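Whether sequence alone determines local backbone shape is best considered at the level of individual chains. Part of our work consisted of pairing the sequence of a single chain with a tokenised description of its backbone. This step matters because it turns folding into a mapping between discrete strings. For completeness, the protein is quoted in full, as a sequence line and a line of structure tokens:

_____
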Amino acid sequence: MKGLLKKDFCLLSRYMRFIVIYMGAMIVLFAMTSQNAVSGFASAMSVLCIILPIYTITTMSLDETSKWDSLAIAMPLRRSQIVGSKYILAIVMLGIGVTGGAVCCGILALFHADAEVWANLTVLLVLLCYNTLMLSILIPLVFKFGGEKSRFIMMGVYMVPTFIVVFLFSRFGKNLDFESVAQDATVCALLLGGAVIIAIAAYIISYFISLGIYRRKEF
């Protein structure tokens, strides 16, 4: 398992310069277009939490292009290890994004009195749950259809739920008292706790679905 993860991180290392440049550009862009630097920086960190886990799909596409799986199954590796390494990689990348965002929230709090630390951390937790759910849907689809065919599917996986949420909020959001919910610590804790449990359950179920798909594949 460690060897598989090292292989994936070696693949991702070639994209590290692009990630750094991209995030720098995002920070500048959001800082210029947002009302203040705090909200702009928080928006950039949100993008980081979304972008980093997607690189797991990049490693799967590279494996497919290089026929890595044909070699991997000829080695003393279980298919459960190959599938599991992708799920671990996705969580590690997501964890890096969330941790980076949390550290930045702390730094902002030191220099900006108006930085809402708990609000930003809550947003990071919501992003963590959201991306975990999206990865739970996306990874089995990539195992099923391959990296190239799944690019358009990936766009749909992220865009369709976003459009649905925007539509529901625009249609019914006026009738909901979000401020009261946000001020009720118990309700917020229950909602966030439920979201975390659902995300974890979906991720575990997704792993077994992907494992079933991968076991039936022939290379």
